[in-house]
Amino acid sequence: MDTGERYHEVDPPEALRPWVRMVWTYACPRPSRTIQRIAPDGCPELILDLGDPYEEADTDGTFRLQPHALFAGQMTRPIAIRPTGPVEMVALRFHPDGARDWLGQSLRTATDQRLDMTARLGGLSPPSGDPEAQAHVMLDWLEGERRTGAWTLDPRVRAEVEALHADQPLPARDAAARRALQRRFLDRVGIAPRTLRSVIRFRRVFDHAMAEDAEGWLDAGLGAGYFDQPQLARDFRRFLGCTATEWAREQVELARAIASQTYKPGGPEPV
């Protein structure tokens, strides 16, 4: 990373682990104005900007300012963002099915959306320049939310999520059982099991690509479970909107930090 740029991760306490995968913080005092592509990673996030917020490209290509506090639901396509000034942020990364009770509505309503949470997080003021303290302010606040919210998990959905993370074949079900689980999965996760499997496989490409013995993107794709280069290329277009070579050449700062640090295998905590 450049001088002054930092990325930091903190594990949640035991009480929050069934719902929260981690907290991450990021700061870049002197960011470029480079457009950065962010791919789906299978986890919804609650993000609080302590510095200047990013601009995000809308479907018409116009860049619009993101709110200072936002909930990012499941993504099925890439987003393009660019900084507007000094960047400092802290984010709660939920497990794929972990945010439903906190959000208080179906995760399907947040898919491919960034929901404004400024009012809900208005009382939070994590200290600037202290990533550990920032993470613990967010975790302490969320623990208060959990205690008053009577959060639960759906065991059937969690079992499906765990199987997808472990790359296990899903059990055979009749049509009625498949439809019932799909409805529950869409409510708790926001996307279908097949889509989440594709996102998880694509995320694994980055972990393989950054291993010491990596021999290139094709080798990383094969290690992640792709059959061949054309299949991998289709998912780069689908989830990043570019080729692997273009992404490697263009990405800096937050996009690079997320890819190098957080695209790692690892499923949720068991119920």
Automatic annotation (TrEMBL):
Keywords: DNA-binding, Transcription, Transcription regulation. Signal peptide: none annotated. One of its GO terms (molecular function) is DNA-binding transcription factor activity. PROSITE patterns: HTH_ARAC_FAMILY_2 (PS01124). InterPro entries: AraC_XylS_family_regulators, DUF6597, HTH_AraC. Residues 177-250 form the HTH araC/xylS-type domain. This is AraC-like DNA-binding protein. The lineage of its organism: Bacteria, Pseudomonadati, Pseudomonadota, Alphaproteobacteria, Caulobacterales.
